[in-house]
Write a structure and sequence with these properties.
With 175 residues, this protein is mostly beta strands. The chain is 12% helix and 40% strand.
Length: 175
């Protein structure tokens, strides 16, 4: 079987394959040049996925995941947020409604950020929350993963019960 992944590497039109386990690919059809362009347009480029977070005088770089909710967040930047602390999580309502598109889950890793759909809230996880049953952050109810923060999260532990945050497009400043 021919394995042509041209849809993903920007080459000429060709067959699209979906994985079915390690080392095996299943053919699903042929993509036209227009369909390939749609795939590229609807995916966040590496540059579009970088968001700067300023929180309590600290700066972090957030790399957004490639999903519908992350795309909507990026399109709605900049955002100023008032965040409250819930154990090892800061959360606050976004000024723009973000559709809850994508995977939903309640367990996160430190450094991940998510959308909590019931409150249209932006959540930053850096440790266990009151809902946790182990050392992993757990949401009160499932949310949509938005991305992962790069940087030392230990400084977040030192911040208070309420902080201001600003989300803007682009990488963090090198200060």
């Amino acid at each position: 079987m021919r394995r042509d992944l041209s849809v993903f590497d920007g080459a000429k039109p060709g067959k699209i394959f979906l994985g079915k386990g390690v080392g095996s690919l299943q053919e699903t059809g042929v993509a036209s040049e227009n369909e390939q362009e749609d795939v590229r347009k609807n995916s966040l480029s590496r540059g579009d996925r970088r968001v700067r977070i300023e929180i309590g005088g600290l700066q972090f770089e957030l790399e957004l995941y490639d999903n519908g909710a992350a795309k909507a967040l990026a399109a709605g930047l900049p955002q100023k947020l008032s965040l409250s602390r819930w154990g090892g999580e800061y959360y606050g309502s976004l000024g723009t409604r973000i559709p809850a598109k994508g995977e939903h889950r309640d367990l996160y890793e430190p450094g991940e950020v998510a959308l909590w759909p019931p409150g249209n809230a932006f959540c930053i996880f850096f440790g266990p929350t009151p809902a946790s049953t182990d050392d992993r952050p757990r949401m009160a109810s499932p949310g949509v993963p938005l991305g992962k923060i790069h940087g030392d999260l230990a400084e977040l532990e030192k911040l208070g019960a309420g902080v201001s945050a600003v989300l803007t497009n682009g990488p963090q400043d090198s200060r």
